[in-house]
Amino acid sequence: MSEKKGLTYADAGVSIDAGNRLVGQIGPHAKSTARPGANAQLGGFGGFFDLKAAGYKDPLLVAANDGVGTKLKLAIEAGRHDGVGIDLVAMCVNDLIVQGAEPLFFLDYYATGKLDNDVAEAVVASIAAGCREAGCALIGGETAEMPGMYGEDDYDLAGFCVGAVERAGALVGNEASEGDLLIGLESSGVHSNGFSLVRRIIEQEGWKLDDPLPYDADRTIGEALLEPTRIYVQALLPLVRAGDIKALAHITGGGLLENIPRILPEGLRAQVSLSNLTLPPLFAMLRDAGNIANSEMVRTFNCGIGMVALVDADHVGPVTKALEDAGENVLRIGRIVNGLRGCSVVGDGWSASHDA
Questions:
Q1: In this structure, what are the phi and psi dihedrals at residue 270, rounded to the nearest 5 degrees?
Q2: What is the CA radius of gyration of the chain?
Q3: At how many degrees (to 10) do helices 195-205 and 281-290 cross?
Q4: 242 C-beta neighbours (distance < 10 Å), count
Q5: Which residues pair with 142 in a beta bridge?
Q6: What's 260's DSSP letter?
Q7: Residue 152 in contact with residue 113, Cβ under 8 Å?
Q8: How many helices (H) and strands (E) does the chain have?
Q9: pLDDT tens figures, 253-263
Q10: What phi, psi does 274 have (nearest 5°)?
Q11: Positive or negative CA dihedral for 68, 71, 74, 75?
Q12: What does pTM read for this prediction?
């Protein structure tokens, strides 16, 4: 009888050596995100952060985690991995700023069927780019090679971010009052929600990701759909700390219709008018191809508004100017009225309502 071959982890489809090489490849990307409180060195069992060195005196910690969803399927199909890490960071840090918190540090989880170091490094490099844009440190993460759990070319992402806010400056969603105004900050595209519907439309219409856009022959459908989620932290943080913004709503799953009521107390309702909003051509293309009702659009997609700020009417002018000076495109979209807690959307061709 011949002896059985001794099995190794590599025989099972997992390369320890490739994983070790990846740590060396991504180390410089993490180091590029160093900030006060963190030196962003990888390789330990955990990452440290020094709140005192970051300048906080009586902080509350705020944590958020998220993923990129089925947008990853399009990125994998298109072979474009240099933006999804920004999406991952954005989905977390935008959720922190709506609580008034400054993002401090970020950790990622990258899972794949077979580790491709070039793809993994491109993804982590884009995570580091998002961290630099948000001002937070990439202090650690996890890479999991799991043959049989994912296809060889597939991967999934999750992100975890912790921020801090001085106790007196936290936005807790109960500061709104009748007459406050709603300011919309322009999105960069579909962001990272609604892609199951986007993919259904692509399949139905037979679109290819490298097809030119009907409204812009210089860009492809894939490029437009994979545009990374906008990060609003640096534009909003000074205004939040100055007390000029009463509340913020990150427009993610549920769209305008369901996210705005999350920042309102009982007895107040958001009255949103989209009469002045020209639906961006990417959203119009999706709406027309899928024959999607406008009421469905505003509860599925951001429709061109990625963040909504609730501002006292007396402050709306200075706040708008400060946001524009910070590079944001801003649109006044509504006001707060007395009524059943929720949101009503009206305008030319727009009519939708949600009671929270």
A1: -90, 130
A2: 22
A3: 60
A4: 13
A5: 109
A6: G
A7: yes
A8: 11, 13
A9: 999 999 999 99
A10: -105, 20
A11: negative
A12: 0.92
